[in-house]
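Encode chain A's predicted structure.
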Amino acid sequence: MESKVVTVSSPLLPPLDELVPYLRDIWDRKWVTNNGHYHGALEEELRRYLGVPFLSLFSNGTLALMAALRALDVSGEVITTPFSFVATAHATAWANAQPVFVDIDPRTFNLDPGKIEAAITPRTTAILPVHVYGTPCDERIDEVAARHGLKVVYDAAHAFGVEENGISVLTRGDLSVLSFHATKAFSTIEGGAVVCREQAMKRRLDRLKNFGFQDEVTVVETGFNAKLNEVQAAYGLLCLKHFEEGVAARRKVVEHYRRHLGSLSGITLLPQVEGLKAAHAYFPLFVDAEKYGHSRDALYERLRDHGILGRRYFYPLISDFPMYSALPSAARENLPVAARAAEQVVCLPLHSSVSEEDAARIVELVRWRT
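Encoded structure for chain A:
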């Protein structure tokens, strides 16, 4: 067994000697949270880099998603995907709305726009799609929402820096929500953001993450505490400085995987989208056990036995968890594509620490012959 362990993700840590001057400055300022210098600087740098009108930073992506739903006064039912991280549905539940699961597209693994209208009821107020693995959702989702007067909140946790035909996918819908968790391509260790179109919406998001305060003595709504602190904001500024380096490193790994696994029988890779500027945050593959000769779980265990810590991402489906499994929309017969994807997927390690030797070893393990 090889001694080196390769994890599925790894944080893009900026050089420590670059972080120290920021920390000294924070110590000198004695302002460590509550919209300090680095918080403001990171909001502006991210807004510029991402090419979006307005952006509000949060202490994590889940709270950002909860605030986005609250800011749009979402209630009743929210149409969403079962093929995502569980926080997508949890945020809906915390908004006192009921998730309604709709099946996914078999090619992109995103919410299938052709299945949405059949799920709309008089109680539906919003659609919550996910740009899964950074592949942009079909723009027909926004068209369906417009026809029915529904809000659209995009869970863009995987879509930092993603552009299609030169336009950021974060400008779609009413709001887009980012995660800056340590496992993401861009990180503030923990953190997130909501992208919006108007200054008035940014002001409301800023109030929601600060207990609902409008000014020093006036509380105008029921908010919570979801502010990003100065140390994390400074860390984020440095990560942004090195972000393109990380993308370039991950791109090389992706190219190696695609070159050696793209024609492997029984293995399906994500489609390559024309005009897409990708961040290369994830590399999922899907295992057809009959054609491949081994099950997904057998491959997953083989990788682990050799120190390669892949992840079955997303498995199980959100709709299989006990708090959601009793919902009518969670029935497996309603979600055949998502169910198959959840049983077939495994994500290979993809981060800037994956060396050429690591990538070659992983490819050899996947190119399994009995």
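The chain is about 35% helix and 15% strand.
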